[in-house]
Amino acid sequence: MSDSSHQTVLLEEAVDALVQDVDGFYVDGTFGRGGHSARILQRLSPSGTLLAIDKDAQALAVARERMGQDERFAIEQASFADLSRLVAERGMTGKVKGLLLDLGVSSPQLDEAERGFSFLKDGPLDMRMDQSRGESAADWLKRAPEGEIVRVLKEYGEERFAKRMARALVAERAERPITRTAQLAEIVKAANPAWEKGKHPATRAFQAIRIHINDELSDLESVLEQALEVLAPGGRLVVISFHSLEDRVVKRFIRRQEKGQPLPAGLPVTDDQLERRLRSCGKAARADDQEVSTNVRSRSAIMRVAEKIQ
């Protein structure tokens, strides 16, 4: 059940930034295949504890196999947008010493054709991180209006040729259902007139549809707001993003919480009245050349760290 193919990105850097109190309570909001969680547990004392969260049933199976015997560890099948509820159930609201979010799709999810995330391997067009609920990518493409497809491709994939691709998808589904990843990749590829060097022409479209199907950006915005309530003063927020849309959300959130409440210019207020909630910890970090050489997926990773002030 363990996934040797999965290489955890920014492993040491993320755990170094996260764990400031070895006796504390921590949350790994994206267990994945457990690389970060395993290292966090190694750093914690016998009285430290870790709650992990993941939508993916396969991730839970890995967690129970690898860490189920560790009494300091618990895992929940849920979205990290359920953070406040899960922490409150444990009586730890305002006491979390660190929250880690490693966004995007894990390597095993991409590598398993039957999950429907990859344009490189043919499989059923699913893309759900939690396959027990919600609408698959195939179901969405079957019923979505052309305008909605355009919006998703443009907004979540930053795809220049969203209109051409949406038109092609609507034309194709009128002839036959779009149910396979290879089929989707071929349609999108044919509708893309300007391929980017070193990037598959279906990359942006697959990213966009995956983000939409899993509500990834709205869940991210939600969990960031919840982090302000669950973190203890001095608690750390560590977020690893893999594309510009995610990183933009994280960067703007941290900057907004550093500046505090927006007030009219020239208004005489004391610093504490600004209600600054976070302070940024250093500059954004990226994988070094050595890590990129052994794990190409780390190339786009960017990590931001912030600490709760009050």
Q: Can you describe what's shown?
A:
The protein is α/β, with parallel strands linked by helices. It folds into 2 domains: 191 residues, Vaccinia Virus protein VP39 (Rossmann fold, 3-Layer(aba) Sandwich); 84 residues, Putative methyltransferase TM0872, insert domain (DNA polymerase, domain 1, Orthogonal Bundle), CATH 1.10.150. 43% of the residues lie in helices and 15% in strands. It is built from 13 helices and 8 strands. Strands 1, 2, 3, 4, 5, 6, 7 and 8 form an 8-stranded mixed beta sheet that branches. Helix 7 packs across helix 10 and helix 11 runs parallel beside helix 12. The longest helix is centred in the C-terminal third of the chain and has 16 residues. The chain is globular and about 60 Å long. The N terminus is likely disordered.
**Total of DSSP H or I helical runs spanning 4+ residues:** 13
Q: Look at the structure and name the CATH superfamily of the largest domain.
A: Vaccinia Virus protein VP39
Helix content: 40-55%
Q: What's the count of strands?
A: 8
CATH level-1 class of the largest domain: Alpha Beta
CATH topology of the largest domain: Rossmann fold
Catalogue the unreliable spans. Answer: 1-5
Oligomer designation: single chain
User: Architecture of the largest domain, according to CATH?
Assistant: 3-Layer(aba) Sandwich
**Shape, per Cα inertia axes:** globular
Q: How many strands, which pairing sense, and closed or not: the largest β-sheet? A: 8 strands, mixed
Structurally, how many domains make up the residues? 2
